[in-house]
Amino acid sequence: MENFTPYSSLIGGIILGIASTLLLMAGRIAGISGILSNLIPPQSGDALWRVLFIVGLIAGAVAYPIFGGDMAFLNVNPYQLSDNAHYTLLVIAGLLVGGGTYVGAGCTSGHGICGLGRLSLRSLTAVLIFMAVAVVTVFIMRSVVGG
Amino acid sequence: MFNIISLISGLLFGFGLALSGMVSPGKVIGFLDLTGNWDPSLAFVMGGGVLVTVITFRFILKRPVPLFGREFRLPTKTDLDKYLISGAVLFGLGWGLGGLCPGPALSSLAYGNPKIIVFVGAMVAGIVIAKVLTGTFRKAS
């Protein structure tokens, strides 16, 4: 547990809750997969707020190290794969995450932070399923490739 | 006002994802690696987020219209259908493989890593494929 960061993770999580609260005060659910998928392709009158949210999402991540945040923890390749293998894995993972969150109507933010906040049974079900499947996937990956 | 609120919400969300550690696939895999060198940090992210929304959402949703918008647009489905279940399975599989979910993937574009750009491209392709296969793809209007 040498990488355990309870304080920054808790404060980060509370900020995600505040951001989701703010967007609900504008009438929308802060579900990132939904915000993105409804932009593909953009629909007139419904695109600007989505684009601005995503611009903010990127700018907020840019701001973190500028405000003194430590990015040393960033590890993009946890299974320590070769570049070719890792690119292949990321393409497969990206297709599954994009397709899965569209079909399942939400991801970690929409079902997790917002759906659980609304006490939605659909969201609780989705969260339990994707967490369980992800845990099993990591177990299998660790057994096969190590890292 | 609505659009400015959306921008501010996005800014906070991106900052929160970076601070929490969610933008690091290594951190995500460490959290999901229950039988290995488990790092429980990310439980505090969802815990902290839900702690806020479970309190604030009930007050916000008591209003007939939102403070900064014309109407609430909320999910209307209540049944646990095959789409919800199968979508969550596919997403869990992809999340465990790449260590990236949609929010951290988009916000990590900030750091200019070509691998993240490839992941986001594949994620967009995945959305298009799913829309075409489910017959819900609508042309730009």
UniProtKB/TrEMBL annotation, chain A:
Location(s), subcellular: Cell inner membrane
Transmembrane found in the keyword field: yes
Pfam families: Sulf_transp
Keywords tagged on the record: Cell inner membrane, Cell membrane, Membrane, Transmembrane, Transmembrane helix, Transport
Superkingdom: Bacteria
Spans traversing the lipid bilayer: 6-26, 47-67, 87-107, 119-141
UniProt protein name: YeeE/YedE family protein
Main location: membrane
GO CC term, one of those recorded: plasma membrane
Record-stated family: Belongs to the TsuA/YedE (TC 9.B.102) family.
Topological type in the membrane: Multi-pass membrane protein
Organism whose genome encodes this protein: Sneathiella litorea
Keyword Hydrolase: no
TrEMBL record, chain B:
Transmembrane segments: 41-61, 82-105, 117-137
Domain of life, source organism: Bacteria
Keyword set, alphabetical order: Membrane, Transmembrane, Transmembrane helix
Protein name (database record): YeeE/YedE family protein
Listed Pfam families: DUF6691 (PF20398)
